[in-house]
Amino acid sequence: MKIFLSYSSKDRTKAEEIALALQAQGHGVFFDKDDLSGGEDFHAVIREHIANADLFIFLISPESVRPGAYSLTELRLIREKWASPKQHVLPVLLEPTDMETIPAYLRGVTIFEAVGNVAAEVAAHFGRPSRRLPALAFGGAAAVVVALAFFLYPYAQRFISGGEEPPAQNEALANFVNILVYPPDEIKKTEYSLDPNSSFPRDSRDVVTLEQVAFGRVLQDYNAFNVIVAVTNTTARPILLDLTQRFFELQDDQGRQAELIYFCCKASGETLGPSQQRQIQLLYRLPPGWVGKGLRVKTISFRISGLLPLLRGAWEFRPLATAN
Fold first, then answer.
1. pTM value > 0.70
2. Phi, psi (rounded to 5 degrees) for 34
């Protein structure tokens, strides 16, 4: 991708680390305004790079959102290009910043907050560019048609992640090849109940949401599901997070569970402010019979239990079958 990186000059060191990490993944990154030659029209060059960008990363700090900051001028140009920030803009929190000073346009999407090294985690958010795979069609009661061509693509595509995870887990995520993202209408919410004693409004259906289910393969070794969950603080006061893998499970209609091979990110005692959101990523290794010609299940369900204030939540989707 062509990425435009916007930041305050006081955050240049961190911006350079992020740019280098993304360039190592194969992305093109424009970030170093100091390298523009004196004969160039500064503003014209900035506008040109923004016009050609596939993605805009805004590094949030008190300096980058202060009135008069040039980064806000860049943000205005981005708003002219993309009316909605979704799928186009990634705000990255570098330093604690008053939420009221962060432009609403940036707060319109999830603000990425690193747990460990910010450059490494931003790079892991995107991963190495991958080739486009053949289109996959949904249909029929039996399952979903999946092209066999994905076995020819052993290169990795990383998903939203972060934190310092054990090498084996990082390797599994780095080698995950995305084949198919389930459309929202193919995922059915079958259960959702909040703790009536919690401070969350009882009608808050967006406290815990299933953001994405993606089918793929870890190199030539095994099939996997990549699941992304979001937790949103819908109250008017900060809450403490307790996030571990014990709350989640992926199982079929016969009670067999998939093996969790990656979880990000654990949190214990961290604060989530009002309207803030934290994303959780899980990568599951699939047992036999969940995909292909030997399909032996009818439904797969992702379940969450005890992740307060959510007492129980469940989402169902169909397994995958290879075309004959």
1. no
2. -65, -20
